[in-house]
Amino acid sequence: MCGIAGFVSEKPLDEKVLSEVANSLIHRGPDAQQFLQIPSSKVSFVHTRLSFLDLSEKGNQPMHFPELGLTITYNGEVYNFPEIKQELEQKGHQFITSTDTEVILKAWHAWGEKAVDKFSGMFAFAIYDSNDEQLYLARDRFGIKPLYYGMQNGIFAFASELKAFHASRLFQMEVDWSAVCDYFVYRYVPSPKSIYNDFQKLPPAHLLKFDVNTKKIAIREYWKLESGDQKDVKDQLPEMVGEILERSVRIHNRADVPVGAFLSGGYDSSAILTYLKDIAKNPIAFSIGFKNWENSEDQFAEIVADHLKVKLKKEILDETSLSVTKLMPLVYDEPIADISIIPTYLVSKLARKDVKAVMSGEGADEIFGGYWWQKEFYRLNKPEKFKDRIKTIFKKADPLQFYADAASMGNYDREGLKKMLHPDLHQYIPDDPLWFYRKYLKQELSPLKQMQYMDIKCFMAELILVKVDRASMANSLELRVPFLDHKLFELIFSYTETEYYKPDITKYLLCRNIEYKLPKAILNRGKQGFVGPDRYYMERDFYRGIFEHSSLQKDRMVSQNYLDSLLQEDYDWKKWKVAVFDNWFGKWGKE
User: Fewer C-beta within 10 Å: the chain N or C terminus?
Assistant: First the structure.
């Protein structure tokens, strides 16, 4: 895993600028840091490397092939690169490294933009083609790896993280207050926006082409998840899913260093470890628990680890770990109010003591129907009980509002935003606060698929994957997500939802593949997020300490009366959103 950045400017940039940019991304790649002013061009690339394949200097980036007219800086893992490499070799291409980086570049030379269709994995990369003076940016299908871009003062720039733009000192980083309003609605800043004016996120599954001479930008979506209505007449779907999962874990284990696993004791992480145990030699699992909590996940992780005879390392947290929120603006240079940012950061820190990469279970809930709101919306639209049928006669659930109520955790509508924000900021409040959810609401889909599609595009891409990327990379740890194999998603979505979802069987297709491999105590567990007890997040003294020294209040963005009113609430997730943003604003909001 790596950090990448680059610039297109009329004049060559000072090497000190490129060095500072590299330093700002060193946590993403501590093994090597290099930059390159591409000869006879206006383009500069920066790269920080966390090495997994071909650990020699030959694998360092930026990788420049003057005979091809191509240069690349790349963050990620294309797991099927050996197969692509073999295909390229049959076409006459020769290779001087054993990296997937060179495979991506040679694939681009062979197939151009269509090469991205062949890549299976997680990636964000930039390729400069000096033959036609075009710069290409691409991001993987699900948005596992981040990529920001923007243009200001005649300079086009891109980077893995926003802090690279800060470090360059080439730009004015001004807060986009419409994005702030979006943050309070969604818990994150949705693509294509970033928290700053003039800078955007490249959405997942998109490719950007920048003409170095005309400075024109063209963006296209290269992959869409299509829905079908196949029937599983021969009961082959569970077996097909199992084959994809086994292969996905196997290729996600490709590395020249050991790969461990996060383990919560839930379905997803336990399934990953079950497959990994059969593939890797003595994998290590890592878990986080909470003191004095009967639902603490470490106890279930121990059951799985003992059953599989896998070494488990864990850390137990209490309310004092809330102090880690002070570090979060450095980890997340854009505000994000997922409630598991602290345990995710700390379990990553724990794992990095032993390994450079871990596997994790993100994506399983989205595709197998594991979230409570998916089940509830399905129930409301396909009622099996008489009392539920009666309810649907009188009131049909609005999918947009239903999803917003379920996913936002501390819902802000227009009136709520007006109550919180200073009147000078009311002009930035959107007319339609739910515009991002509306963008991905596909009412032509069946009820469950409506929720799943929004989860994939909104909840997973913008919240969950951002959380795990920044938390892991802040600790120079690569996080791999075997469930996010696009062929798995394409397969399951090609079937009607009744073929892959059974309301009385938790994650039916996954269950069919692990039901004889894990203890009943694990198989019978209900869904639980990677979080602590509610009392952990509702500690009033924690919020009082933040609100009494509020950066937002000092700058008159939010009134003290509003902050005091939040403190009076025993249970309100708005407090968490405000506290996270206040911490972020104190660090980044006034630069």
Answer: C
